[in-house]
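Weekly structure sync, notes
Attendees: PL (lead), two postdocs, one rotation student
Agenda item 3: pending single-chain targets
PL asked that the sequence for the first pending target be pasted directly into the notes so everyone works from the same version. It is reproduced below exactly as submitted, 439 residues in total.
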Amino acid sequence: MERAASINVDPPQQQQQQAGRCGKWRNWIGFCLLGLCNNFGYVVMLSAAHDILTKQDSKNSTASASDKLAVDSSNSSGYDCSPVTTGAVLLADILPTLIIKLFAPFVIHKVPYGFRVLFCVAMSAMSFLLVSLSSAVWISIVGVIFASISSGLGELSFLSLSVFFDRKVLEGWGSGTGGAGVAGAFLYSGLIQAGLSPRITLLIMLVVPLAMLVSYFGLLSPVPSLPQWRRSEAENAAVDSEERDRLMDESEDEEEEEETTAPEDRTMGPVTPREKLYVVKGLVRFVAPLGLVYFAEYFINQGLMELLFFHNFFLSHAAQYRWYQTIYQCGVLVSRSSLCCIKFRRVWIFSLLQVVNAVFLLFAVRFQFLPSAWIVFAIILYEGLLGGAAYVNTFYFISKETESRYREFAMATASVGDSLGIALAGLVAFPVHKYFCSL
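Predicted structure, written out during the meeting:
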């Protein structure tokens, strides 16, 4: 009898533990899919940059115009240059995101998460439709802007949303955003290489916004205090703070994390403008290295990749560009999925190494001493590893080292770092492109 009693001890508690583990896995997978869907359109637009810029205004191409582009005989440059640098598409893909990330964190907390997700889904769907069906470059650029709005608002919203869940969802988010790079670049490059037109390829990708809806509303298992359709900060501030503390502390038990903020300091209501300014100052040590990493890598991606063209190679110029993007995203996927294995606190190391990459490839473009595209493929893979590692480690340590009541605002605000670096890289790409193409 005594043995039977010991076997049946606390079955409700076991069920509760199993349900908790199931919920954590659902949330991890949900954030992974949200990261994939959120960044997918952004990546596809960069992969399609060469095709977008070579699209003829007079007709809607049914095949990739970039694959048919010949070197202009009037161009005396030794480079196979398009009239406009792909940095133009990069700017259209990042400036709206940058503007959103600069200003939205101060007001976006008033908008419940459910409405934000619906808006992001609508913008994403419109971007694919406009770029695929347009007959003019400027309409395609508007579509790219819509993709940027969706990606920017989605990134800061989902990073803020993560504070309502176990911190391990950041691993899922990192893996998903890295996977978006590979999936977006590989699918676009692969389908074009297989003979589909850019129009049909982009229309197929309309399934991605639908997947975002399913991931958010069907997979996530949020806490009751999550402001889904309405937000009353005065009523929920204390509940939200206590719930976030519990979730974050659970995820850090094995790392023996010690909170430095007294419990009474965490339940003082909404964060004031003065406190937000204090948080922003504290984030500089994270945001500056992240911005430098992304400046260097997107200067490579949109300022130099187009000029790293090898004539005696089995891939055309446009195909080389698309596969450069794909291999870069493979590196990003691997490093953004690395949090479960290793964590780096000194993100500035990635910044230094990425700057070295950019300088090396700048000289490679100028003096054309690299013998084969295969060497560029290896360097670009390494570039992606550095960028992805900088991203996930930055947000992991922001989440870990920021006081509980400031985490939601801090996670949203810090996302401006990568966008600022990318925007500056897009601006620098214009004079660099003009210089090399005038040689």
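Discussion points:
- Residues 19-246+269-437 form a domain with the Growth Hormone; Chain: A; fold (CATH 1.20.1250.20).
- Confidence is low (pLDDT under 50) at residues 56-76, 234-239, 256-268.
Action: rotation student to compare against the earlier draft before next sync.
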